[in-house]
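User: Some background: our group keeps a shared notebook of sequences we're curious about, and every so often someone picks one and asks for a predicted structure to add to the entry. Today it's my turn. The entry only has the sequence so far, pasted here. Could you supply the structure so I can complete it?
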Amino acid sequence: MRAPTALIAEDEVVLREELRGHLADLWPELKIVALAGSGIETLHLLERHAPDVVFLDIQMPHLNGLEVARQVEGRSHVVFVTAFDAHAVAAFEQGAVDYVLKPYDVARLAVAVRRVKQRLGTVSQALDGLLRELASAAQPREHLHWINASLGNDVRLITVDDVLYFQADTKYTRVVTEDGEALIRRSLRELQEQLDPDHFWTIHRSTIVNANAIAGITRDFRGRVTVRLKSRPEKLPVSEAHEHLFRQM
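Assistant: Of course. Here's the predicted structure to add to the notebook entry:
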């Protein structure tokens, strides 16, 4: 018999690798055929690999896990990966698919693995009812609209739509706009959780860029990607882990 196959869809690189490591320990015969960092990439990889199981993060940029799941239905078994609260978890308990909470609990992941193994070879379960429950349980987050930034002895109010990119700078974060830059004390990690992921993309561990400010990308002879901006001359490096954001360019 062929080895069962799986796709892991999780936008956080560290969590993605952590999940892959846990699965290697709990289900050694499982073959991870692909890793995805966004909803759109997940759909492309589903078409290419047709995995038996998808470990699907609900909160992903560009196309969230619930939207992806609507297109997965009937093709692969789904294990949702989520940081949702108890109300949403109650919806999972009523459904036929399984879930894993973040941060990962290995014992709970072992339960999910056991249940998926039992379902292999059967038709994957209908998701319509569960997705409706989850959509109602997932309250929309209020994204960051403006920030206070230090500019010498002054404090400047900057709307996030005017920000071209954020960049980590020792103990501070640089906030770069078309006409200058300022400093804030918020970490990139904190900003990533508060910014709208459809408009602000993490392209490097030290950089978040406003997608609307991107003029295009450049690849050097080694295949390394940099982002060109519409209104500033500097180019921003893209780490390999985030190059998938630009594969359609």
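Suggested note for the entry: The longest strand covers residues 163-169. The CA atoms of residues 41 and 186 lie 30 Å apart.
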